[in-house]
Design brief:
The protein is of the alpha/beta class. It has six helices and eleven strands.
Length: about 270
């Protein structure tokens, strides 16, 4: 038996200086579309979302806001969300692929789209997940604005580092610890400098000998987790002045909600389509 006297976390890693923008620029974050579902309850809200994204509905104020969207990121669950207890079989994937491809193409025709896989999507179940196979997207791949990306995913949007997962590591932390909030768990991972501390014990992951793919080397400006039960957001401040907007992206199938982040001031709010 031994006694732990103290624990010293690594703390937030260094952060690139954030650019100063004179105009608003928005990123749309969404997840859990569940397009393989037999139920069509979420299809009307999804149509409303596409009309809004295309600038075909809403007031002139909304349309001006939409014109400033620079990226849409779908953080997993486009085929099936995490609440779906059934694993997709080959027939389910084939039946849903046309809808998924058409939706991805429609979004890519309007604005750049980064599409991440989730644990119930037709991709490798082990983290880090590789991008979707291009054969699933015969229409969307015609657009250079369509990007099949990994999970976890890190990108640079106009000098702002964005980092996130489709939600599995954060849910697992709350499952096996006394942390009961996704938002709190995400703040802890920034302090730990690690995206998935429970890998590979309770979250399957690919064995890596030389490097740890889940180490947070650059403190992100935007840090998100997909397929959450509800929308939540906060700003995390590091000891050396790091500023990170943390976003819990709600499951769209159940919440009909997306999150928007303004790059000019890192403000974040939700928008519901119902």
């Amino acid at each position: 038996m031994f006694t732990i006297k103290d624990v010293c976390w690594a703390g937030c890693n260094l952060q690139k200086p954030l650019p100063v923008l004179n105009n608003d620029r928005y990123i749309v974050l969404m997840s859990g579309l569940n397009l393989a579902s037999k139920s069509g309850d979420h299809l009307f809200p999804l149509s409303l979302f596409m009309e809004w994204l295309s600038g075909f509905c809403g007031t002139s104020e909304y349309q001006e806001e939409v014109s400033k969207i620079v990226r849409v990121i779908i953080a997993g669950g486009i085929y099936a969300n995490q609440s779906n207890e059934n694993t997709l079989n080959e027939a389910d994937v084939i039946a849903a692929s046309e809808v998924v491809d058409s939706f991805s193409a429609a979004v890519s025709a309007v604005t750049p789209l980064d599409l991440m896989p989730g644990c119930k999507d037709p991709a490798s179940i082990m983290l880090p997940q590789k991008p979707f196979h291009y054969c699933l997207f015969p229409k969307a791949t015609h657009y250079k604005s369509f990007n099949r990306v990994s999970n976890p995913y890190e990108c640079d949007i106009g000098g702002f580092v964005c980092l996130g997962t489709s939600g599995e590591p954060i849910k697992d932390i709350t499952r096996y610890s006394e942390i009961d909030s996704n938002l709190t768990a995400m703040k802890k991972t920034l302090q730990w400098r690690h995206l998935a501390p429970t890998c590979p014990d309770t979250v399957p992951s690919t064995p890596c000998l030389d490097t740890d793919p889940f180490t947070i080397y650059n403190c992100p400006a935007i840090y998100y987790s997909g397929n959450c039960n509800e929308f939540a957001t906060d700003v995390h401040k590091g000891d050396e002045g790091q500023t990170t907007r943390i976003v819990c992206i709600p499951d769209f199938c159940s919440s009909k909600t997306v999150a928007l982040v303004n790059l000019s001031n890192l403000e974040c709010y939700s928008m519901k389509f119902a």
